């Protein structure tokens, strides 16, 4: 597993974790060896990888770190300064402890050696004369082998537990087993980083995992990441293949992950990948079939009953009224199709969707439209896709579903122009209808001729006429309310409107003319 940050090793500890290191406490507990801890006063939490007997004054070229050095002191100098230098050389190469055999050159542990070990924080042991160094080495080797066998047995047992949990409880059951075995908080995310299952307190875990996934995305070759701190370890591993992940497994443990823990974690990743991949293939196939049915529905305004009947496979009823949704991304942004489909799946809303030039087109039941819109907008917000707007058509019989596409596209364009996330076609005003660039341009062209005398002139009088005309039209042709809004007498307003009729050729007592003039003014404003 890749490591992106680690705590620094303290003096006298190995530079890298030994998966099967033997604890110093265990070694001291072996009564047959008769070892005595001289420094420090209490047994430290130290793990040693090997016990190595060597009598050189500078043994460091032959040490790799993590050893307990065994010496009788045959070549050790008696001067305290030189003894201190000896200990400092050992500490520099991450030796985890020093054991001096007394009764050969030194009857007791030299004071200089004790002081030097205390200063650098290196454990110092006394080995009695009857204890051969080879006995210590053999004890360490036997303990390492014992721990390796225990790790293998644990992994085999855990594999059986996980397999049973996956068969009986799916991803949730498997997640619970991993959390219990590793004493960890576990979170499983899908490919869109939405929670699928969890165990333990995950209140802020998702946010921290999201931050690590950003870092992981910057390094596509990596499939896992581990962050080690003073409080524990956060490990995140990818589920599925490199080209297309099917999800993520995040595990947070109170301490470092041992090699045995990592082996269990890898087993969990394999089983979770199988759990995620199998249903995903079925879901993908279902979405492809749904897209085909929807494309047939969009092909004509009225479709054959045989096509409509296929919607029954996706949760639609024969007599349902339906609505069309269009999720439109900003220019240059990626399609929101996976987000939309996943959100509707998670909300258990009957739907079919497909990708078109207008955006993601979705068909839902009229009775589900509120739940569908809430699910889609929530999913887009969680993913940070604030560039996507959603347009919703009015309710239509299923066989007329294709007619809802244009309405939904128009509603989406209105929502974008109004800086809103959702546009509902049934609530559009004239202003929102004119938010569509194509509609606005066409209206402005059609209205250009009658309005031209007012728009082309720069005279103050014509500007006053334009303002008075708009206020009059917005107040539904009411002389009293419009004149009050303008702050003029109603006779003054009548004279102005008479002049407008004279210049434009329109009749303000004719509803069609009033609508044409108002649309022209609104199109001009935009």
From TrEMBL:
Q: Which residues form the Purine catabolism PurC-like domain?
A: 27-142
Query: Gene3D superfamilies recorded for this chain?
Result: PucR C-terminal helix-turn-helix domain
Q: Which residues form the PucR C-terminal helix-turn-helix domain?
A: 465-523
Q: Which organism is it from?
A: Mumia zhuanghuii
The organism's lineage is: Bacteria, Bacillati, Actinomycetota, Actinomycetes, Propionibacteriales
Q: Which Pfam families does this chain map to? A: HTH_30 (PF13556), PucR (PF07905)
Write down the InterPro entries for this protein, in alphabetical order: CdaR-like_regulators, PucR_C-HTH_dom, PucR_C-HTH_sf, PucR_dom
What's the protein called, per UniProt? PucR family transcriptional regulator
């Amino acid at each position: 597993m890749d490591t992106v940050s680690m705590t620094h090793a303290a003096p006298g500890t190995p530079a890298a974790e030994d998966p099967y290191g033997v604890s110093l406490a265990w070694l001291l507990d072996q009564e047959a060896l008769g070892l005595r801890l001289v420094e420090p006063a209490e047994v430290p939490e130290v793990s040693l990888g090997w016990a190595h007997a060597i009598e050189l004054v500078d043994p460091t070229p032959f040490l790799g770190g993590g050893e307990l050095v065994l010496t009788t002191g045959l070549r050790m100098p008696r001067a305290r300064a030189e003894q201190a230098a000896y200990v400092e050389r050992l500490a520099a190469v991450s030796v985890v402890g020093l054991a001096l055999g007394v009764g050969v050159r030194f009857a007791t542990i030299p004071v200089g050696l004790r002081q030097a070990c205390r200063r650098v924080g290196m454990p110092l042991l006394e080995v009695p004369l009857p204890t051969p160094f080879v006995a210590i080495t053999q004890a360490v080797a036997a303990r390492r082998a014992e721990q390796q066998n225990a790790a293998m047995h644990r992994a085999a047992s855990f594999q059986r537990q996980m397999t049973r949990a996956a068969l009986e409880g799916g991803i949730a059951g498997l997640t619970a087993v991993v959390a219990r075995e590793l004493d960890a908080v576990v979170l499983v995310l899908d490919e869109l980083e939405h929670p699928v299952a969890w165990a333990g307190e995950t209140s802020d875990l998702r946010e921290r995992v999201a931050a690590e996934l950003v870092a992981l995305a910057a390094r596509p070759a990596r499939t896992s990441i581990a962050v080690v701190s003073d409080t524990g370890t956060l490990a995140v591993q990818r589920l599925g293949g490199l080209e297309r992940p099917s999800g993520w497994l995040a595990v947070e443990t109170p301490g470092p992950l041992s090699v045995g823990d990592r082996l269990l974690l890898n087993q969990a990743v394999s089983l979770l990948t199988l759990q995620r991949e199998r249903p995903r293939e079925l879901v993908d196939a279902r979405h492809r079939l749904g897209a085909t049915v929807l494309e047939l529905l969009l092909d004509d305004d009225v479709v054959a009953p045989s096509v409509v009947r296929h919607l029954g496979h996706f949760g639609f009823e024969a007599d349902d009224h339906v609505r069309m949704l269009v999720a439109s991304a900003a220019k240059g942004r990626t399609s929101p199709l996976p987000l939309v489909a996943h959100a509707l799946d998670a909300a258990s809303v009957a739907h079919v969707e497909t990708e078109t030039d207008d955006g993601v087109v979705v068909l839902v039941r009229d009775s589900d439209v509120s739940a569908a819109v809430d699910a889609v907008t929530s999913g887009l917000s969680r993913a940070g896709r604030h560039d996507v707007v959603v347009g919703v058509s009015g309710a239509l019989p299923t066989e007329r579903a294709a007619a809802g596409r244009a309405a939904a596209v128009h509603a989406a364009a209105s929502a974008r122009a109004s800086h809103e996330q959702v546009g509902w076609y049934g609530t559009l005003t004239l202003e929102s209808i004119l938010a569509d660039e194509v509609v606005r341009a066409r209206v402005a062209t059609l209205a250009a001729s009658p309005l031209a005398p007012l728009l082309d002139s720069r005279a103050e009088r014509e500007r006053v006429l334009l303002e008075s005309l708009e206020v009059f039209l917005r107040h539904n042709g009411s002389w009293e309310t419009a004149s009050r809004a303008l702050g003029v007498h109603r006779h003054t307003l009548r004279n102005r409107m008479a002049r407008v009729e004279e210049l434009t050729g329109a009749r303000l007592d004719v509803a069609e003319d009033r609508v044409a003039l108002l649309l022209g003014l609104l199109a001009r404003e935009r």
